[in-house]
């Protein structure tokens, strides 16, 4: 990759903090708020072992409640900061800013957030990145507003100029644009010189139109971790098998095959209490890399332990920490979807 002043860092590079938004009764979590709060408490407790966390809260009452719940769980509150800001829901991977290094500073990319193609109301979430930039902790960075629908969960970078994404998602958001045009736009805004497209792969219960962070993730510039399906009777088998074939055909910048780490397939999880009987999108690929560790979603499934072993192989120098995420998939996302990392130096704490 040619060195430029602006660069999209990989998730495994040093971080200043992780950004989340606290669930409350005004979000879609209201029907199962008690369950999902336990996941958020476990998540914050895991993050602060390795780095600070910046928690968005809707108002001072939500902050007081979140602060009390975290303190009662003996979370290290010296590493927790709160920011009062409006949001529709808590999927900050998609509504939060994408941060690029810009010389000695940082650039916050504020793409349009449309509620995954207009599926949900997203007016406040679409303003979230700009509101975050008003905070003293982030106001020192440059904010670049981009009138183009793109979610952070739709893109993966190796930090060296290679982007991994899915055609299904980007084509759904921009059906009028061809692949060459989309490649050019992504390359320009994100400072990438290679865009690798996956055609196949999906999860039932996923309303993001196949975000890459539910399917395949870089573990290094030459390594990809991906969600496999080893049950030939499962309806996901053909698509995920085809996706595995696509990944095997990809080549690194120097022409070698990627080192591939297939993740095990959890047993089907269904929601039979709400909206009839629907299958939920449980993916182990939706992990979060933090300083010195990988936080992985756990679903109370026997495959959790096997997934941990795969991630330990893919990230041999990092601790693998399980976070219980079964409540999250009720709303069609998991651990990576509710978080957004902020690179080291981008946050004034």
UniProtKB/TrEMBL annotation:
Keywords: Hydrolase
Superkingdom, natural source: Bacteria
Pfam families the UniProt entry points to: PAD_porph
Organism: Luteimonas salinilitoris
Name the record gives this protein: Agmatine/peptidylarginine deiminase
Hydrolase recorded as keyword: yes
PANTHER family with a match to the protein in the record: AGMATINE DEIMINASE-RELATED
